[in-house]
Amino acid sequence: MWLYAGRRMLMTIPILIGVSIICFALVKIAPGDPVQNLLSPTASAADAARLRAAYGLDKPVVLQYLIWIGHVCVGDLGMSISDKTPVAGEVFEALGHTLVIAVISVSIALALSLIFGVIGAYRAGAVSDRAVTAMAVFGISVPPFWLAVVLVIFFSVNLGWLPATGMGPNGSEAFSYFRWSDFKYAVMPIFALALPPLGIMTRTTRSSMAEILNQDFILTLRAKGLSEAQVIRHALVNIMPQALAMFGLQLGYLIGGSVLVETVFTWPGTGYLLNKAVLTRDIPLLQGTILVLAAVFVIINLAVDLLQSLIDPRLQRS
Amino acid sequence: MANVFAGSSVAATAPKPVVQSRGYWASVWRRMRYDYVTLFCLALILIIALLAILAPEVAPMDPYKSSMAHRLKPIGYPGHWLGTDEQGRDMLSRLIYGGRVSLAMGVVPVALATLIGGLFGVTAGYFGGRVNMAIMRFMDIFFAFPSVLLAVAISGSLGGGVVNQLLTLTIVLIPPLCRVAETAASQVRTMDFVDAARSTGASTLSIVFSHVLINVLSPILVYASTLVSVSIILASGLSFLGLGVSPPTADWGLMLSTLRQSIYVRPLVSAIPGVAILVTSVAFNLLSDGLRQAMDVRQ
Q1: Looking at A98-112, A172-186, B245-259, which range is the least confident one?
Q2: What are the phi and psi torsion angles at B197 (to 5°)?
Q3: Cα–Cα distance measured from residue A201 to residue A197, given in angstroms and rounded to the nearest whole number
Q4: What is the largest CA-CA distance in chain A?
Q5: In chain A, which residues have their Cβ closer than 8 Å to the Cβ of B270?
Q6: In the A/B pair of chains, how many CB contacts fall below 8 A?
Q7: Are B141 and A297 an interchain contact pair (Cβ–Cβ within 8 Å)?
Q8: For A281, phi and psi rounded to 5 degrees?
Q9: pTM of the full predicted structure?
C-alpha cells in the first residue's frame, strides 16, 4: 500500500511541473507587450528597458520561469492588475466559496445518479428506464449557463421564490450555509451545477449496473433466496470504487468549470474571478486562478486514486 | 471489441480492400436503418445545417437590421414569429444565421482535433515504446486541466475572436482524441493480421494505412461524434463570456449573453437561443449513441 501510494504521489510531480509550464506560457501567448501596457505613451525606449529589467523580462525565458515558480512555491502568485491586491489571497478566498457549492452539487448528483442508474438498469427497456435515459441525455446536452438563466427566469422572475444573484443579503463575509435566508442564494447555483454531472454519472451507473446485474454471482444470490433489495445492495457495493472515481472527477470538473454558472449568479467563487480576469484582461489573476484550480484538480485525482486502491486493493497491481 | 476489427482479416488478404470495407459500412447502415431515433436526429441535424448554409435565402429578415421601435417584441408578434431582441432585430433570422457560427464551432474543431489527435494517437499506439511515452506523457499534462478551465485559460490569454476560439477548442479536444486513438491503435498492433502483414514484408507505412487506420477508424469516429455537442456547448460558453465572435455577429451563445439583461422584460424570448443549443446538442448526442450501437464500439 505505502509503496503504491508513494509511487502514485511521485507521478504527480511531473504533471504539476507540466501544469505550471502551461500556466507560465499563458502569459507568454497573451497578445501585446506587457511593458508597453504599463508605460505612459510618452515614455522613452530607455524607460521601457528599465521597466523590462525591473520585472525581469530581459532575462532568458527559462530563467524567468524558474524565478516565477520560485515565487509560486512560497505562495506568491503576483499582484492582480485590476485590484492591486495579491492574487493568492483573492484566489483562496474564492476557492472556498466554489468548493462548498461544488461538493454539495456533486454529492446530490452522485446520490441521485445511483438511484436513477439502479432503476434504469433494473428495469432495462421499461418506461422508467427510458425516462432515466432521457433525463441523462438532457443533463449532458444542456448548456449549464442557459439552465442557470432559465432557473432565474422561473424561480426569481416568475415565482419570486429565490434571489437571482449574489451571495446572501450581507455579502460573502457574513454568509452562513446553515441559515435559510443566506442559503437560498446558493440553491440555484447548486442545482445548475448538479445537472450535467447528474447526467454523466447516471449514464455510467446505469451501464455498469446493467453489466453487474448480468453476472453469475447475481444469479447465485437470487438462487440462495435473497430478496431483490438485498441483491441490489450486493450489486451496489460493486460499483462503489467506480462511484468514488466519478465523484472525484466530476468534483474536479465542477471546480474548474463553474465559470459560466457563477457568472450568471454572480457567486463570488473562482469562476466569477476567472470571468473578472477575462473581462478586465487581468492576466496575472487569470494565471494564478488557473494554476490553483489545476493543482486542486490534480490533488483530487490523486486522493481518489489512493482511496480507490484502499477500497479495492486489486487496483494497486496495475 | 471483436466487431471493431470487422473486415480486418479480409482486408489483409483480399485483393480489393475497398470493396470489402464498403461491406462494413453497409452493415453499419443496415443496423442504423431501423433505429428511428438516430435517423430522426440525423434528419434534424441536416435540416439545421441546411438552414444555416442557406441562411441568406431562408431567413425572413436581415439579422443585423435593428429597429428601436420594435425592441423586445414577444413571441408571435406579427412579422417576427419568435419576437425581437434588445436591438429590435428579428430573432428567427438571427437564430438561423447563428446556426452558422455555432455549427461550425461544433464540427470544425472536432474535425481538426480528430486529424491531429488521431495522427499522434495512432503514431503513439502503433510504435509504442519511447514514442508512445513522449506523446502520451505530454498529453497527460493537458488532462490535468478540466476542459472548461483549459478553454477559458487559452481563450482568456489569446483574447476573443473566431480564429482564437477555433484554435482554443481544437487544442482542448486533441488530448482526449489522441488517447482514444492510442488505445485503439495499440490494440490493433498486437493483432495477428498485423504480424501477418509484417511477415510478408509490407512496409510500416502500408501496414499503418491499409490495416491499422481502417480498424481504428470506428472507435475514433464514434468518440469524435460525441465531442461535437461538447464542442458546441464549450463554444457557446466561451461566446457567453465574451471570448467568441464579436458582437454584431449572430451566435447562439452571444445572443444568450446579450439577452440576459432582458430576462425581466421578455423571459421567453431571451431563453430561445439556449433552446437552439439544447436541441442541436441533444441531436448530436443521440446521433453519436446511435452510431456507437451501429458500429458496435464499446466505450
Answers
A1: A172-186
A2: -65, -40
A3: 6
A4: 89
A5: 149, 153
A6: 139
A7: no
A8: 50, 45
A9: 0.82
